[in-house]
Amino acid sequence: MKIPASLSTAFGDDFQATLLAFALENELLPDEGALASERFLTRSVIPHVERLSTLFNRIEPGTEGTKIRARKSEDKPGLDPYWKESSNPENFRLAYFLAFMPSNAARAAAVVGELSRLGFRYPAGMKAFRGIEWGAGPASGAVGIAAGVRHADIGVPREGNWALIEQDRAVLSLGEKWATKFFESQDLGWSVRPFHRKVDWTKPLLPASAPSFHLWLSSFFLNEAEIPLDALAARIVDNWEHHLEDEGLAVLIEPALRVQSRRLLEFRKHLLVEFAKPKRKGKYRILLPCLGHQACGALATEGDWCHEEITWWRPKYFRKIDELAGLDRKTLPFSYLVVAKSKRSREELLPALGSAKTDRLVSPAHSEGRDLEFFVCGEEGKRRARYRPESDDEAKEIERGSIFLDAEIRGDARAGRVDLRKGVI
Fold first, then answer.
1. Which of 28, 203, 320, 400 has minimal Cβ neighbours within 10 Å of its Cβ?
2. For residue range 5-25, what is the model confidence (pLDDT) as tens digits?
3. Within 10 Å of residue 231's Cβ, how many Cβ atoms?
4. Judging by beta carbons within 10 Å of its beta carbon (0-12, 13-18, 19+), is residue 240 exposed, middle or buried?
C-alpha cells in the first residue's frame, strides 16, 4: 500500500511525546523516563506483550474460521477474558496500549491514505463528522483515522464526534481519554462518547433511535463474531441501512493470518449477495482493496488469502519493546475492506482510476532477470505475471498495492505478461 511520506512518519517523535504526556497525566507510567527504561519495560510490559503476541498469533479451528481464544476460557473469544484473568490488569492494559494500539492505529491511518491517493472525498457540505468504532479498545481505530485525515485529505470536517463501543469498561475509559487527547493534538474538534456494551448478534447492533454515521469502523472485530457469515453479512447490512449515512464508508480491518483473512474474503462474498438484493441494488460499492464487485481471486484457490502491508516509522519506545520482546514490526500486515454506501459510480468515488480497467498487485514484486514478477488481481481473477520496467524509476513504482491501468495481461494464470498501457499508480 502506498501512503504519503508524512503519514508513514506520523507515529514518530511527536506521537510518542503526545502518548507520554497522556500516560503521565493519567498515571499510567511511574515517571517520565519509564518508556526509555529497560528495567521498567522488562518487568512491567514485556511479559504481557509476549503473552498478547502469542494470543494474537494463536490459531485454533472454529466453525466459521479461526478464533483467538483464551487459554483458560475456550468458550469466550476476544480480549475481555484476558483483562479479567491477569494478575495485574493495569499493566496488562498498559502493555496493550503501548505495544499494540500504535500499530493498529497506523493500519487504520493507512486505509485513509489509500482512499485519499485514489481521489476519494466525502461530498462537500458535511458540517459535522460522525464516526463509530466497534470493539474500540483504547480507540486505536479512531486515533488512526484522525492521524490519517491529518496527512491525507478525504474531505472530513474538523468538527464532529465519535461513538466508541467496547465491552471492557476500563479499557473503554482509557480509549475515551486517549482519543480526546489525541484529537486535540491533531487540531481536530472531535468529541467522544463511550458506550459500554457487549455485542449481541441476535439483536440490532444499535437502537432504532441511534443516529447514522459517516464512518463505520471495526478493527479485529468481525473475526470474533460467532454466527455464520451469511447471517453476519445480512445483519451488518441491515444496520448499515439505518445507521450508515448515504455517501458514508464502512472500513473493516482484520488480521492478515490466512484463516482470518479468508474469513473476511468469504464475508465479502456474502456482502455481494446482500448488495444484489432488489431493495439494495445499486446502493453499495466495494471500493478497497478490490476496486469493484468481481469475484475474489484469492478465494478461487484453497489456502490462498489476501492481505496488505505497510512500512511505518515506529515510535522509539515501540522499537525498544520490539527488541526486548523479539518482535519485528517494521512492516505491518493486515486484511481490510472498504465499502461505500453510495449510488455514485467507481469513477466518481475514486477519480484517480478514471474508467480504466484495473489490476492490483497483491504480492511483493521480485526480480527475475530484467523482469519483475508478482501476483495481480482484477476482473479476470488472480494470476502470476511479469513486467519489464523501462527504467529504475518505473521499477520503484511497482510494489504491493500498485494498480495497473488498462493493462493487457497475456498468457494464463501461471505465467502472464503485463503490457502496460495507461500507466501504474
1. 203
2. 999 999 999 999 999 999 999
3. 14
4. buried
Non-local CB neighbours of 341 within 8 Å, separated by 6+ positions? 240, 244, 245, 246, 247, 248, 249, 250, 283, 284
Q: Three cell numbers at 175? A: 480509549
Q: What is the pLDDT of residues 265-276, one digit of tens each?
A: 999 999 999 999
**Weakest mean pLDDT among 89-98, 221-230, 272-281:** 221-230
CATH of region 356-424 = 2.40.50
pTM for the structure as a whole: 0.92
All 3 cell numbers of residue 332? Answer: 505491518
Q: Minimal CA–CA distance to 56: which of 224, 299, 252, 175?
A: 224
pLDDT at 421 exceeding the cut of 90: no
Mean pLDDT for the stretch of residues 356-366: 94
Q: pLDDT of 170-199, one tens digit each?
A: 999 999 999 999 999 999 999 999 999 988
Nearest Cα neighbor of 121 from 309, 247, 27, 306 is: 247
Domain assignments of the chain as residue spans, ordered by start: 5-28+100-351, 356-424
